[in-house]
Amino acid sequence: MPPVLSPCLLIDLMSWPFFSLSKSPRHVPVSFAMGRVTMQVSGRDDSPMATIWDADILIWAVSRLVAARRRGIPVSPRVQGSMSEVLRFIGRDPAATRYERLRTALDRLHGTQVTTSLRQTRGGAQGFSWLIAWQERRGKLDLILPQWLCDAIGRRGVLTLDPRYFALTGGFERWLYLLVRRHAGRQSDGWAFDLPHLYRKSASRSPYPRFVFEIRRLIAADTLPGYRLRLETDASNVPVLRFSPDPSKETYPHDLVDNHVEDS
């Protein structure tokens, strides 16, 4: 029986637009620059890029490696498990159709090419795919992760996620939860971004008014696990999204959170 895992993800994957937020195939590359951070994300040979739902597989793999690291096992790019284990981890029934969807997601992760300056020396960049290789045989799963991911795990650049994250159905909703979780953390005062900055950070293809509409919709829905959102305006009348922990919405053990992270 595999160990019970606390969902974990790299803080870098919670802060930047590495994944498509749409369930429709995205063939248009992400081309992003903010400050010293640049990134290009695209599908290989015009195939669709990986989605934020595909990233659930990476959350499982990172969680396996973090659990091993806490037991004193060195971080390795190879992660082994089973298809049913992944599906149970993300709260899905291990039905045959789920296996096919999981294989398709693995293909998208393998076929997505990333080039980024993040965590590189000034002027440098690194390229990789989310999966160097994967193999599934009789339900057993074998993944090879890029060194870029393993390096981040090794320097403890991870945070735990509320397991209710996997029940969030919207791509925008999932993106916002990850950003809020990364920046607000356990700070009682939370964090805030003005909406124009947040819009640029999302690399959204929607017009800015649609982005604001979605933010307002999520504030009204109040569905982000563990956090409360509210919209304010600053002295220049620019809308600001403020988010902070909401103890009344917390159900997972915060003592498992790895708070030794680097700022990004």
Question: Can you give a write-up of this model?
Answer:
Pfam families: RPA. This is Putative replication initiator and transcription repressor protein. It comes from Novacetimonas hansenii ATCC 23769. InterPro entries: Replication_initiator_prot_A. The protein is 31% helix and 23% strand. It folds into two domains: 153 residues, Winged helix-like DNA-binding domain superfamily/Winged helix DNA-binding domain (Arc Repressor Mutant, subunit A, Orthogonal Bundle), CATH 1.10.10.10; 86 residues, Arc Repressor Mutant, subunit A (Orthogonal Bundle). The radius of gyration is 18 Å and the shape is globular. The strands form four sheets. Strands 2-3-5-6 form a four-stranded antiparallel β-sheet. A three-stranded antiparallel β-sheet has the order 4-8-7. It has a three-stranded antiparallel β-sheet with strand order 10-12-11. A hairpin with a 5-residue loop joins strand 11 and strand 12. The chain has seven helices and twelve strands. With 264 residues, it is α+β, with helices and mostly antiparallel strands. The C terminus is likely disordered.
The gist of it:
It comes from Novacetimonas hansenii ATCC 23769. Pfam families: RPA. Helices cover about 30% and strands about 25% of the residues.
